[in-house]
Specification:
Helix content is about 75%, strand content about 0%. By secondary structure, it is mainly alpha-helical. Helix 5 runs antiparallel to helix 9 and helix 8 packs antiparallel against helix 9.
């Protein structure tokens, strides 16, 4: 059996951190708990991260890139019309929460509520994540506009921001209601109104 590499040790810490922060909160989980789960000694932690806050940034960046890859994958199928690609992507995300259960949380959304006013590095990482997701959607909405699927009067970037913000609000309501009704309402409204904008 080969010894753990630098890359997979760091990845294990990030994965354990994401799991603990998602299950509890940033402040609700301790570094010892994270390192015990990752099976990494405390001394090794500081080889990869300056602080728990630094780990928090890495957790956000890793989760953000994973979600961005999901978005890119679902928006890249040129055989499907642009607007339908956007709808399909949101439908797939809704289906994920239906399958996993409404209490399954996005670690980025959870951390956004907790640390945005407490940690500037984490706030900026969260902001970049949301801005990047919206930019990926905006590119496809530009295609939809060029294809006449949405009105020339629509600003694709503004519309993409609105969709991301509305979706995130619905996932918050999902946590409160403990059901996916808010996501169902989002999908129904977006499917009805987007083609008419």
């Amino acid at each position: 059996m080969s010894p753990p590499t630098t890359a997979n040790t760091k990845d294990r810490i990030i994965e354990a951190g994401a799991s603990a922060m998602s299950a509890k909160s940033f402040n609700g989980c301790g570094l010892k708990e994270i390192l015990d789960t990752a099976d990494v000694p405390k001394g090794s932690f500081y080889h990869y991260f300056r602080s728990k806050e630094d780990l928090g940034v890495a957790v956000i960046e890793e989760s953000a890139e994973s979600h961005a890859e999901f978005i890119r994958e679902h928006l890249s199928d040129r055989k499907v019309k642009p607007l339908q690609r956007v709808l399909n992507m949101f439908e797939e995300m809704r289906d994920y929460y239906v399958e996993q259960g409404p209490m399954r949380e996005c670690v980025i959304a959870k951390l956004a509520l907790e640390v945005a006013q407490l940690s500037e590095p984490m706030r900026l990482a969260i902001k970049y994540a949301y801005d990047n997701w919206a930019a990926l959607i905006a590119r496809v909405l530009m295609e939809a506009k060029a294809a006449g699927e949405i009105s020339d009067a629509q600003d694709p970037e503004e519309l993409a921001d609105f969709l991301v913000n509305a979706w995130e609000g619905c996932t918050l309501r999902m946590q409160i209601d403990q059901n996916t009704e808010a996501l169902d309402q989002f999908m129904a409204r977006v499917a009805r109104t987007l083609p008419r904008l």
